[in-house]
């Protein structure tokens, strides 16, 4: 099956010469969207794990988590190079000195990059100055994972994000100043978005020099506000076919050099009331690929850059 998009595994091989895997790290921290600094209660879809259900316990040190995960993942996938992945909640939401210590623990021969999940409103220049210096000293790449989810400000308000598109743009401009890679999370089955919102989100990512994208469907995690809304029939979830069409439209508009981390996510069945239309994530992924291959679609075949180049070529 031909891959009609630029996968993250291709990017890793292009950049590091071999397969690379993430080593997840869980810290004991929270989020400014939970403690009142931005909002209370967190995003309506976010559970108590903060997106880290497969992680080791946070009482383990960064060094211990890296070593244990390296042994397990390295043996399982025959991998030698890894990315230290600070995954749960907001991983810049701490003092500068604390931040320096957790990052310095990643200075290991087998670590090629550090990936930091955080919020746009928690990207501060003091930490970026430190990371820039540390990256140049150690040779480790720096990746920031930011959750935009959608460009639709009305939907962002419903999701109780506590930040908006302007915050995201500001953070991206700041990160681009230091040439750090940016991975953006998007949810392409939001009930309050339409196909125009999906296309607009892709175009905005193109304009902001985004390096990677992680695509999700909307999960309904138990014990969340979204769960209460779901069982009370306050919204209608888009169909699996609509999600797949949204992903295809999104990819076709996205620049072809943006690496795709995933086409659909997953979550523990016991923790969710709705997840991927009771379909395996890999089946949805394969259906998207098959649909694109059958129609001859590839990532970026509708992006403004390619259209501009074609027009310029026709005139020359």
Topology:
Elements: H1 8-16, E1 20-25, H2 62-77, E2 81-86, H3 96-104, E3 111-118, H4 125-138, E4 141-149, H5 153-158, H6 165-177, E5 181-187, H7 195-207, E6 212-216, E7 220-221, H8 225-231, H9 240-253, E8 259-262, E9 272-274, H10 281-295, H11 304-315
Parallel strand pairs: 1-2, 2-3, 3-4, 4-5, 5-6, 6-8
Antiparallel strand pairs: 7-9
Written description of the protein model:
With 316 residues, the chain is α/β, with parallel strands linked by helices. It contains 11 helices and 9 strands. Strands 1-2-3-4-5-6-8 form a 7-stranded parallel β-sheet, with helices on both faces. The chain has a two-stranded antiparallel ribbon with strand order 7-9. Strand 3, helix 4 (125-138) and strand 4 (141-149) form a beta-alpha-beta unit. The longest helix is centred in the first third of the chain and has 16 residues, at 62-77. The mean pLDDT is 92.
């Amino acid at each position: 099956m031909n891959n009609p998009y630029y996968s993250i595994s291709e990017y890793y091989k292009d950049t590091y010469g071999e397969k690379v895997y993430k080593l997840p790290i869980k810290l004991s921290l929270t989020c400014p969207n939970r403690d009142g600094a931005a909002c209370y209660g967190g995003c309506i879809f976010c559970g108590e794990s903060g997106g880290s259900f497969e992680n080791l316990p946070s009482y383990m040190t960064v060094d211990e988590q890296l070593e244990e995960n390296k042994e397990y993942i390295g043996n399982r996938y025959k991998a030698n190079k890894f990315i230290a992945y600070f995954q749960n909640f907001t991983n810049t939401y701490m003092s500068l000195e604390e931040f320096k210590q957790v990052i310095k623990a990643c200075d290991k021969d087998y670590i090629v990059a550090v990936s930091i999940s955080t919020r746009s409103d928690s990207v501060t220049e003091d930490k970026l100055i430190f990371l820039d210096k540390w990256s140049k000293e150690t040779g480790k790449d720096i990746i920031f994972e930011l959750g935009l989810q959608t460009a639709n400000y009305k939907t962002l308000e419903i999701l109780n994000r506590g930040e908006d598109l302007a915050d995201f743009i500001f953070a991206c401009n700041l990160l681009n100043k230091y040439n750090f890679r940016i991975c953006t999370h998007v949810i392409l089955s939001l009930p309050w978005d339409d196909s125009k919102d999906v296309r607009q989100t892709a175009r905005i990512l193109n304009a902001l020099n985004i390096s990677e994208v992680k695509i999700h469907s909307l999960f309904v995690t138990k014990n969340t506000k979204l769960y209460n809304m779901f069982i009370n029939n306050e919204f209608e979830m888009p169909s699996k076919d609509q999600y797949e069409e949204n992903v295809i439209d999104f990819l076709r508009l996205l620049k072809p050099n943006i690496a795709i981390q995933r086409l659909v996510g997953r979550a523990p069945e016991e923790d969710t009331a709705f997840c991927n239309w009771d379909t395996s994530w890999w089946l949805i992924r394969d259906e998207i690929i098959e649909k694109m291959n059958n129609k001859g679609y590839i990532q970026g075949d509708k992006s403004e850059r390619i259209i501009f180049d074609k027009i310029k070529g026709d005139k020359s």
